[in-house]
Every structure is written in C-alpha cells, then in structure tokens.
C-alpha cells in the first residue's frame, strides 16, 4: 500500500516543473557584482598592497583558527603542524616557485581535493573562503612585487601566505610531514 | 490525487536532462571563454541555465524573493569559482551544486525560516507552483509546507531525480538521513493530500 503510494508520488513529483522562469531578469544584478570590482593589480600601489595583504592574512588566520579549533567536522584531520622551512634565496628575482615545490604542491592539492569533497557544505564553504582570501593575498603581493621586486617585507609576506595556503590544504587533506618538509621553494 | 497522478510520466532525471538551446560543445566553448573573463559568454551560460537554477532555488526555499537572491548568489559564486570548473560534471550539475550551497548558506544565516513557514501557510497559492499547471499545484503547495529537511531531500530526489548519494552529498547529510527524510516527506505529503480530499 505504502509502496503504491510512494510510486504515485514519485510519478507525480517528476511532472513538476524543474525549470521556472524568474519574474524579473536577474542578470543586471549579477553583472554588476561580477564587473563592479576593478582590476586588482592595476590600481594597487605596493604600499597599499602591503597593508591589504597584512589585513587579509589576519582575516585568513582567523578563519584558519576557527577551522583548527572547530572539532565537529567529520573529516578535518588535526595533526601537529610540521615545522617546515622556506628558503629565501630560492625565491630569486622572479619570485616564482620551483618545479620540485610545484610537484609536491600538486600532491597536496590532489589529496586536498579528495578530502574537501567529504566535508559538509558549511565546512567546505569555510575552507574555500579561507583559500580564496589567501589566494587573493598571494595575487596582491605578487602584483606589488612586480612594482617593487626588492621589497623584503613583501617577499616575507609572500612566503608566509604560501605557508598559510599549504597549512589549510594540509589540515583538510591530512598531508604528511615528508611532503611539507621539502625545502624547495 | 488520482487525477494528479494520472498525468503522463515525465523525465526530470538529473542526468538525463537534454539541452536544446545550446549544444554541449557550444557550452564547453562558452565556459572556456567565461573562464578567460568574458562576461558575455557567462551571460549566455546564465541565460541557458537560469530557469533550472531558479527553479531549484524556488522549490527549496518556497519564497520568490529568497529564490531570486539565491539564484543571483549562485551565479556570482559560479563566476568566482569558474577557474576551478574542470568539466568533470555537466555545467548544469555544477551550477545546481552551487545553488544548493547558496540556499543552505542563506538558510543558515537567516532566522527567517519560521516566518517563511508561516507566510507559506497563509498563502492560497505557493510561488513555487508558478511553473506547474492544474492539479500539480496541489502537490507543489504540499511540498512547500514540508519541514525544511524533508522538503530539500524530496525536491532534490523526487523532483530533480538526484540519487540519495548525490543529494546527501549536496546537502551535507548522511545517505541514511536522506532516505529517512524522503520517507518522511512522502508520508507527510500523502497525509496533506488526503486531507485535501485527494485519494492517496
């Protein structure tokens, strides 16, 4: 009896419209939101980028702290933070990351992407927001470094920001210390 | 209910929805252009998918204003995350996932759910029934009156054809919870429709 009822409901439910036209055009609001923000790199002076990067890092760190202390997630693996080191000299004039580092990072990213899918939407949103902030900071600092390549404060900030990005992915992906200990940046 | 159920079987199965307006190849090209920053290409993707995204938001929230906000938020988030879309799933499925997150995020941040239930209960015709005709409106209205958890699972599973695995993943709940909520939704719907004089 119940099965018959469920079948009827299922058949009826699949008749319902899945495509419904909004009563107003939503595009103008979307367009405004996606085009409103001016190109970041062209308007930011190195000094402004430095200040903003610091603010962003503080924000990102707060998010990370929240993630780290929150223990209700089913998958987030909390491990002692490995004491990995970044070599200043390999940063060089171009401020690019070495191939070895990029290979290792690809492993971290792969594990992160597997694990992040298992988080709840709320946790995933927190992680993505943190990474978005951090990656925005990386872009800003790189843009500032193009204008002021020898600025040691910016170089330090860039290293710390990459460190933060790896920390987030490590926390989610449960990355081992052996990967994180490579001194190849 | 009998007349309602006598209608022909449709096909709302999530993985089987065919797009006629633009081909998959065109869509892939549009996504690539949008990923490079072309807002016109993204607008074309919006035009192609907005009805389905808005439909899902409206069925999940049962409120026109919130559905509009959620649909807008979903497309804004999609623009921001577009670089990470690698085509592993269809663009429409990816958009649906973002839309569900937008709805859940909005509900989490809002304390207005009780107000919404009250408002829906006072309505003679629910806004989610806009796209439905005839007696399907009764079912649509009944879905709107379901408790939030049961409504979300029923919409994703029964209306949009997602599997329990897919819908539980989108909603961040266990598969068992999804099954239990679907069972609860069916029971409550049958009860509501019976009270309205339909044969359940």
Briefly say what this structure is.
The complex is a heterodimer of chains A (185) and B (200). With 185 residues, chain A is mainly alpha-helical.
Gyration radius of chain A, to the nearest Å?
22 Å
Domain count of chain A: the total is: 1
- What class would the helix/strand composition of chain A place it in? mainly alpha
CA-to-CA gap between the ends of chain B? Answer: 6 Å
The sequence of SSEs of chain A as H and E is: HHHHHHHH
What's the main sheet of chain B like?
none
Low-confidence region ranges of chain B: 1-11, 13-19
Our count of helices of chain A gives 8
What is the element string of chain B, with H for helices and E for strands?
Answer: HHHHHHHHHH
What is the CATH homology-level superfamily of the largest domain in chain B? RNA polymerase sigma factor, region 2, helix turn helix motif
CATH class of the largest domain in chain B: Mainly Alpha
The name CATH uses for the topology of the largest domain in chain B is Rna Polymerase Sigma Factor, Chain: A
Task: Tell how many strands the DSSP assignment of chain A holds.
Answer: 0
Show unreliable segments of chain A.
38-44, 73-94, 175-185
Total strands of chain B: 0
Could you give the topology of this structure?
The complex is a heterodimer of chains A (185) and B (200).
Chain A: H1 2-13, H2 27-36, H3 40-43, H4 46-69, H5 99-116, H6 121-147, H7 152-173, H8 177-180
Helix pairs in contact in A: 4-6, 4-7, 5-7, 6-7
Chain B: H1 2-5, H2 24-35, H3 39-61, H4 64-81, H5 91-109, H6 113-122, H7 136-144, H8 148-159, H9 164-171, H10 175-195
Notes on the protein architecture:
The complex is a heterodimer of chains A (185) and B (200). Chain A is an all-alpha fold and 185 residues long. Helix content of chain A is 65%, strand content 0%. Chain A has one domain (44-176). In chain A, helix 4 packs antiparallel against helix 6 and helix 5 packs across helix 7 (152-173). Mean pLDDT of chain A is 67; it is low at 38-44, 73-94 and 175-185. Chain B has helices at 2-5, 24-35, 39-61, 64-81, 91-109, 113-122, 136-144, 148-159, 164-171, 175-195. Chain B has 2 domains: 19-110, Orthogonal Bundle (Rna Polymerase Sigma Factor, Chain: A), CATH 1.10.1740.10; 133-200, Arc Repressor Mutant, subunit A (Orthogonal Bundle), CATH 1.10.10. In chain B, 42% of the residues are buried. The longest helix of chain B has 23 residues, at 39-61. Chain B is built from 10 helices and no strands. The chains are: A mainly alpha (185), B mainly alpha (200). At the A-B interface, helix 1, helix 2 and helix 6 of A face helix 3, helix 4, helix 5, helix 7 and helix 8 of B.
């Amino acid at each position: 009896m119940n099965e018959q009822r469920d079948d009827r409901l299922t058949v009826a439910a699949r008749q319902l419209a899945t495509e419904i036209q909004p009563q107003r055009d939503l595009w103008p609001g979307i367009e405004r939101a996606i085009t409103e923000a001016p190109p970041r790199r062209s308007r930011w002076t190195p000094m402004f980028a430095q200040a903003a990067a610091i603010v962003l890092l503080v924000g990102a760190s707060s998010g990370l702290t929240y993630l780290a202390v929150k223990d209700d997630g089913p998958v987030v693996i909390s491990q002692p933070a490995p004491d990995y080191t970044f070599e200043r000299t390999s940063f060089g004039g171009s401020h690019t990351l070495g191939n070895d580092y990029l290979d290792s990072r690809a492993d971290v990213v792969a594990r992160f992407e597997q694990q992040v899918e298992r988080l709840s939407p709320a946790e995933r949103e927190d992680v993505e927001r943190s990474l978005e902030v951090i990656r925005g900071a990386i872009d800003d600092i790189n843009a500032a470094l193009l204008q002021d390549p020898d600025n040691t404060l910016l170089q330090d900030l860039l290293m710390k920001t990459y460190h933060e990005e790896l920390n987030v992915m490590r926390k989610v992906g449960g990355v081992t210390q052996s990967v994180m200990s490579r001194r190849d940046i | 209910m009998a007349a309602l159920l006598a209608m022909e079987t449709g096909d709302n199965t999530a993985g089987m929805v065919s797009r006629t307006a633009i081909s998959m190849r065109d869509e892939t090209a549009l996504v690539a252009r949008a990923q490079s920053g072309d807002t016109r290409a993204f607008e074309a993707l919006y035009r192609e998918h907005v009805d389905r995204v808005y439909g899902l938001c409206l069925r999940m929230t049962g409120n026109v204003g919130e559905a509009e906000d959620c649909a807008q938020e979903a497309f804004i988030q999609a623009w921001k995350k577009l670089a990470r879309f690698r085509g592993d799933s269809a663009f429409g499925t990816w958009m649906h996932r973002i839309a569900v997150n937008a709805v859940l995020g909005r509900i989490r941040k809002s304390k207005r759910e009780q107000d919404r239930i009250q408002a829906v209960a006072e309505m003679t015709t629910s806004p989610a029934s806009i796209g439905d005709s005839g007696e399907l409106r009764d079912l649509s209205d009944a879905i709107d009156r379901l408790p939030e958890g049961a409504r979300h699972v029923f919409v994703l599973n029964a209306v949009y054809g997602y599997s329990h695995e897919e819908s539980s993943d989108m909603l961040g709940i266990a598969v068992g919870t999804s099954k239990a909520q679907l069972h609860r939704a069916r029971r409550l719907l049958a009860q509501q429709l019976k009270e309205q004089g339909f044969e359940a």
